[in-house]
Design goal:
Elements: E1 2-6, H1 15-24, E2 29-32, H2 51-60, E3 64-73, H3 80-97, E4 101-105, H4 114-129, E5 138-142, H5 150-157, E6 165-170, H6 172-178, H7 182-189, E7 193-198, E8 200-203, E9 211-214, H8 223-232, E10 238-241, H9 254-271
Parallel strand pairs: 1-2, 1-10, 2-3, 3-4, 4-5, 5-6, 6-7, 7-10
Antiparallel strand pairs: 8-9
């Protein structure tokens, strides 16, 4: 099992701490979603003029950068020039670090009819995918916002190139937000799923969305079921912990959550056979 965590979960850690803690907690990768208060890490010295030094530091620690998580919302046609610029920047980093994936969001579609939204989303993704074509890099659309339903995501995937566009399965959102069964998600998206996000939650009527995030195994997300489904279907990608400390400061510190999630996920290998 390959474990990674997104830096969304450790917004106050510097690069030294990220590397040291990843090794200490037994992770094999780090997924960059911000550093030192800057969400677009390609703007930072560590990923521009000092990128080669950062690459050596990760290699020396035996770590990979499993994904660069962008802020791109691919649906919006108006955002396409800005999105092209951002994907181009992350593609350069992928080539430096040997990172195969760039995460993108679909974004909200507002009152756009679904069929029109699907066509527009696919067209925009195909335009962005030109940037990574032939470079061994894939854009991964997260099962999130207006693209949580696997039927809608499948329609987009059917209109895009599997070499350059795939799915990031946020195992939490389809199950929690729309009650989509794990087996149904896999049946529609399985061949295109290249990467996974993991988090647990439990119902809380007082919380903003009716639920609250919690440590692994302390909520209602059927993580064993997700693991078995992936294992049975030959998934060999990363299990990436997405601890949303950046957006929910009251959550337990990463020093608590990251080792706990790592231990829990590794335990799935024995209980999830």
């Amino acid at each position: 099992m390959k474990l990674s965590f997104t830096t969304l979960g450790c917004p106050t850690w510097d690069l030294d701490t990220i590397i040291a803690r990843a090794v200490e907690y037994g992770y094999q990768g780090v997924d960059f979603r911000g550093l030192n208060g800057e969400m677009n890490v390609y703007l930072l010295p560590e990923f521009s003029e000092k990128a080669d030094e950062t690459r050596r530091r990760f290699a020396d620690a035996g770590l990979e950068i499993s994904c660069f998580s962008s802020s791109v919302k691919a649906f919006s046609k108006n955002d396409l020039p800005k999105n092209i610029e951002e994907i181009s920047a992350y593609a350069r980093l992928c080539e430096i670090f040997g990172t195969p994936y760039i995460r993108v969001f679909g974004g909200g579609i507002g009152d756009t009819p679904r069929e029109q939204a699907i066509e527009q989303m696919a067209a925009n993704l195909n335009e962005l995918a030109r940037i990574v074509k032939g470079k061994g890099i894939k854009l991964l659309v997260e099962t999130h916002d207006s693209w949580t339903d696997a039927r809608h995501m499948r329609a987009v995937m059917d209109r895009t190139d599997p070499e350059t566009v795939g799915v990031l399965w946020d195992t939490h959102h389809p199950y929690r937000m729309i009650g989509e069964a794990p087996a149904d998600t896999w049946a529609l998206l399985g061949p295109r799923i290249a990467y996974t996000h993991w988090k647990d939650s439990r119902k809380n009527p007082q919380a903003k969305n009716g639920f609250e995030y919690c440590l692994a195994g302390q909520g209602e997300i059927p993580m064993v079921e997700f693991y078995r489904l992936l294992k049975q279907n030959g998934y060999s990608g990363y299990f990436t912990v997405e601890w949303e400390k950046k957006w929910h400061p009251a959550l337990p510190e990463p020093e608590v959550a990251f080792p706990q999630y790592a231990e829990y996920l590794r335990r799935l290998e024995s209980v999830g056979q």
